[in-house]
Write a structure and sequence with these properties.
By secondary structure, this protein is an alpha/beta fold. It has one domain: Glucose-6-phosphate isomerase like protein, domain 1 (Rossmann fold), CATH 3.40.50.10490. The chain has a 5-stranded parallel sheet with strand order 2-1-3-4-5, with helices on both faces. Helix 2 runs parallel beside helix 7 and helix 5 packs parallel to helix 6.
Amino acid sequence: MSMLEEPRAEGVRGLYPFLYPGQADLDSVLAEARRSTEEKAAEIIRLRWQVAEVAGDELVECAEEMAIRFASGGRLFAFGNGGSSTDAQEVATTFLYPDYGLSLPALSLTSDVAVVTALSNDVGFDVVFARQLAALGRRGDIAVGLSTSGGSFNVLQAFEEAARQGMLTVGLAGDQGGRLADLDLLDYLFVIPSSSVHRIQEAQTTVYHVLWELTQHALGAVTAPRSHSTG
């Protein structure tokens, strides 16, 4: 083994000691993995119940407002960065291609790589969502922005543009809400009270699936149990 390979090998041993003879007791490694998994599962269950207790009525009200706009021809635009970009795409997919119920017009503003890179390169990343809403949005549409920190500037800019156009604005954030909590123009803000990005995103998944299902109910769609509706 070369001198360059040794530090890399040591790093791998530190991450996966059970792969190397004599490095760790397998039973203790598995016990630690089990303990960690149980703690994380308990935390996400607690967070989901906490959000339900604090924001349950507001979730119902928000879904009813979304249903009014969909029924009047409104469309949903979702956006976010990084992992929240993936969630934005899932939001759009959930509303547009549901397992059951009504298919509702929805678009993720992170899906078109050509548009995202053109705006980022030619104008600036801060307006990558706001410029799309300026071109595509209209009064009666719905803007759903996700940010684990609540501080993503391009998400804030998008909400300002959405509010200017008369769109329904729905934010999902973590911890204490960040800058989104100070944004008076938001119609609804659902905050996951955790500092863990992983737990925040898991709970946010539950929030937007619940919003989807409540919106279907508000529209009078026939619904049935959905195995992944809780994220």
